Amino acid sequence: MTDSRHRHRRPTAAVGAAVAGALLAACSGGPGGSGDAALKVSTTTAIIADLVEQVGGDRVDVTSIVPHHGDPHSYEPSPGDASTVAKSDIVFSNGLLLEEPGITKMIHNNTRKGTPKIAISEKLEEYGGTVIKLQEDLGLDVLWLGWAVEGEVAGEGSQVRVTATGLEGPGDLHVYLTDTLGTPKSYIDSADGFDGKDSFTLPPEAHTHVNWAFTEPGTYRLTVKGQTETLDGTRTDAGGGTITFAVGGMGDRGAEGRTLLGTGHADVTLNAAKGEVSVRSDDPETGKREHHAADEVVVSVPDKAKETVPKEDAYRFLGKAGDDLWVLPQAVIGKHVHGDMDPHAWEDVANAEAYVRRIEAELIKADPDGRATYRKNAAAYLKTLGKLDQEVAAKLATIPEANRKLITTHDAFGYLAKAYGMEIAGFVVPVPNQEPSAAEVEQLGDTIQDKGVPAVFLEPNLAARADVLRRVAEDQGVGICTIYGDSFDDKIHDYVSMMRHNANELAKCLAG
């Protein structure tokens, strides 16, 4: 398939039959489809498209922007997606910063005036659902450092741009992203100076993962500034500041009485409302978030963060292959922008019921003549989901309690763990696109041994990035199984089948 658009049409209006296992027809043609549909609906993901279709039946013609195999965290919309959205009567997204910001911007720019744009999970609790905080703890032995922006910013679809304006230090700094396929994208590169292009944007109250690479040991001082950007092009100054890094074998030298951050999870943070830069970190014992003023903190990049420049040509911007490099790793491969709340709420079936209630209410608002159809379909599907919730709970309850631990390639299963008595033991990705050291492989093996997990789990659309986890699992003699998070594939086409598969696979692979 070369076209990213996926239109969903059920062959019949029988909800029960479709849910029981009928495969949803999916094709990659242009927008449109059956002319008798009352509403043309766009959704950001195939999972939401399926839920809308179950409620809407033959009254809706549903198109998913992100294809079945796609990753909503990183998918870049096409002109065809924009054309489809422009013809839609209503657009459903997940919200809570699940979708790549470009998707959100495309929807804002291309929907017709007055078209409802519904971020379902952002009012989930009003419809009986629950939202939990995103838990991120990879247990890295060096600091996991990201970028974040805070503070209220006026204007729908507004972004905050952070730009590096200067660096003092003995070497160069490279801040780059490694995408899902292992290809690096440079955001900040001091080697060629700063010309105003060493920057990136984030939506308000968002956070992203990046790699920080330094070419020489010593003390570095990075200066950044911020701007808010509205969709009409208006830019407003948002302050700035300077962050200090102690790189390579310095211990606490350079800290000079300031707070030295060397482990755990932290973000270089621009507060656009206050015009201030700080480093925010999570206390490893209490989980409480703390903000350290820029002039009161030093970020440690110790000798154990020392790597070498990869041999692949795509990494030549870092230097010659084999050159020394001190790296604070991205840890999660792929563009991964999110907020404090976990957006993967559908992994708890009870939350999927809340999605359905919200979808039902919004379809009725958009198409009052279909009220009876939407209510009937929603009621039938809610009964199916209620039974599915019980089925998933019963199946996962068969797993021995000591084995109810998940090691995956993606932090998408917090809701599943909370709802069904599981534990997130980790989502494991070492330094992106680099061969792990013997010590890293040993550490990962130790984690699998210490947790006593019988299996690890790979998502089909992310399997290409899981070579290290797969290899270590094979070395440890534990199973390698499949679990679905953000998307479907050629085998799984609908939400009920996805959750049933997940429950069966977890029960089978964690049985012992």
TrEMBL record:
Keywords, ordered alphabetically: Lipoprotein, Metal-binding, Signal, Transport
Highest taxon above the source species: Bacteria
Location relative to the cell: Cell envelope
Keyword Kinase: no
Alphabetical list of InterPro entries matching this protein: ABC_LPXTG_lipo_actinobac (IPR022434), AdhesinB (IPR006129), Bact_metal-bind_prot9 (IPR050492), Lipoprotein_PsaA-like (IPR006128), Surface-anchored_actinobac (IPR022435), ZnuA-like (IPR006127)
Record flagged with keyword Metal-binding: yes
PROSITE patterns: PROKAR_LIPOPROTEIN
Gene Ontology biological process terms from the UniProt entry: cell adhesion; metal ion transport
One Pfam family cited in the UniProt record for this chain: ZnuA
Coiled-coil stretches noted in the UniProt entry, renumbered to this chain: none
One CC-aspect GO term: cell envelope
UniProt GO molecular function: metal ion binding
Major site of localization recorded for this protein: other
Family as reported in the entry's similarity comment: Belongs to the bacterial solute-binding protein 9 family.
UniProt name for this protein: Manganese ABC transporter substrate-binding lipoprotein
Annotated organism of origin: Streptomyces jeddahensis
